[in-house]
From TrEMBL, chain A:
Keywords from the named record: Cell membrane, Membrane, Transmembrane, Transmembrane helix, Transport
Boundaries of every ABC transmembrane type-1 domain copy: 87-298
Keyword RNA-binding among UniProt keywords: no
Native source species: Planotetraspora silvatica
Record-level GO BP terms: transmembrane transport
Membrane spanning residue stretches: 29-47, 91-111, 123-143, 184-204, 225-245, 277-297
Domain of life: Bacteria
Signal sequence interval, chain numbering: none
SUPFAM superfamilies linked: MetI-like (SSF161098)
GO CC terms: plasma membrane
Designated name of the protein: Sugar ABC transporter permease
Lineage of origin: Bacteria, Bacillati, Actinomycetota, Actinomycetes, Streptosporangiales
Pfam families, A to Z: BPD_transp_1 (PF00528)
InterPro entries according to UniProt: ABC_transporter_permease, MetI-like, MetI-like_sf
UniProtKB/TrEMBL annotation, chain B:
Name of the protein in question: Sugar ABC transporter permease
Entry keywords, A to Z: Cell membrane, Membrane, Transmembrane, Transmembrane helix, Transport
Subcellular location: Cell membrane
Stored InterPro entries: MetI-like, MetI-like_sf
TM region positions: 9-29, 88-110, 119-140, 152-174, 195-217, 256-277
Entry's Gene Ontology BP terms: transmembrane transport
Amino acid sequence: MAATLLARPLGRRTARRSGSSWQRGHGRIALVFLAPALIGFAAFYLVPTVRGLWFSFTDYNLLSDPKVVGLGNYGEVLSDRVFWNALKVTGVYVVFNVATQTVLALGLAVLMERLTRSVMIRAMVLLPWLVPNVTIALLWMWLLDVNVGFVNHVMEQIGLSKQGFLFSPDQSILTIASINTWRHVGYTALLLFAGMQLIPKHLYEAGRIDGAGEGRMFRQITLPLLRPVLALVLVVSLIGSFQIFDTVAVTTEGGPVNASRVIYYYIYEKAFTQFEFGYASAMSVFLIVFLVALTLLQMRLLRASTSDLA
Amino acid sequence: MRKNPARLLAWVGLLAALAITLFPFWWMLRTALTGNANLFNGSYSFLPDDPTPINFERVLGLASPEEARAAGGTAASMDFWLYLRNSVLFAFAVVAGQVTFSAMAAYAFARLRFRGRDVLFYLFLSTMMIPPIFTVLPNFVLIKSLGGVNTFWGLVAPYFFMTPFAVFFLRQFFLSVPGEIEEAAGLDGASRWRIFWQVVVPMNRGPLLTLAVITAVQTWNEFLWPLLIAKQENVRVLTTAMAIFQQQTPNATPDWAGLMAGATLAVLPVLLLLILFGRRLVDSIRFTGIK
């Protein structure tokens, strides 16, 4: 989404030259061009947003007519221990996933940038991101199998004990976070790689003439000049990471007990296994509040970091 | 090129990263080519012991039920071809509708002048911030009340007309192309409609194709919406079918060889896309921050 800004600033080159009547575009033809998109936007974005908000003030359960309960759902959410636990679990997931993913991606991006232009290598790095979450989840379930999984085999070979991974209360959420780190590192690295292309090459030449080593050039040229891109990538990852669902749904279904019951999965369960649509909608509203807060943070970070390459 | 130990070390690092990225896929293939009986014999060699196509045959429905039971230890099966067809249809329908209609809307936002244009555009943009789970609930209620559960149109509908991202993405490209050619065509008397199809679309082939590929990959990977809408066999897609297949195999002795054969087959289309559009996909990454 927001990474589009990497490519070019929000363009404002709409035709504003005066003159021919051709320039004075008209509402009628615009409506023809917009009609299908407007139908889709109204039906699947605008109306559902309003309707979802309305659900959150009712006891709607899909079967009987909704009754308005005012702020009742919101009150219940605030005193729901599973909700707070889900937020905590999601928080652990987001922090661990985004931190490892960004650090590893930064390393990978630097290696690619300094070593090779190969499209082949970049395509290979992207592969896990292109494969469905469901497939990735199944693949790692097998690799991490407690008894015969390859990873536990390696653990034994190097003298460590077998681990429960997905099925250990202490490890499940971190394991899921690691799986998704593995899936997204290549993609994130390519975003950062694209950002590094924007850094003028002569800076590195100047650095080399001054006798700077690779480490120093990374710290004093790459990192500071990459900061705007890095901030952007970080927040895009953060927002994406909050919406973890598929991997949990396939591997642990929130377990053991509540150890991997993330907020997205909890909302899904409330809505589609217990049919508490009102309650689930109220939780989604809280989620929106978090995401909007993150987006505002993103905008501040972006504004605060545009000056370095000016 | 300088040859020095540091550079060598960097290459070792890069190759290690590639190995970690690709090894799980190799292990998937290795497992798929191993009979279930040989899977638990304590061998972890990188090549399958006694390679066999039986798991692929089972998943593709080429093996007889007796052979399948003998090889899998379970009677669980999946109608792979049906789910593959559904996934392909789903992706094609979404790409065709979404790219066409989003391009038309993006053109209107980039080039036409009408009242409320900017307000409408920012309204489109602002919905990008709303997490999908929030609109999934009312969308499900809507499709259910229209009788769209377990129908193909119910599966496709929410993606068919537009996404705010697609409109935004294409508008940026349309704005960056000089308007002179369109103006010249306009002065020659061509209508906006003809200019769009005969000038704007051909000139923006690249971005349109990029968007089509990205949309295809995303639709292919979609899980939650198909899980809710396409429950019956006749509309079930590959992602949900794989998850269901996994849930059906007994917890004590999952049919890993069969699962990995299915997973391998599900990766093949992605691999094909990467071979056909590798450079385009890789180059498009800077423009998109989706998911």
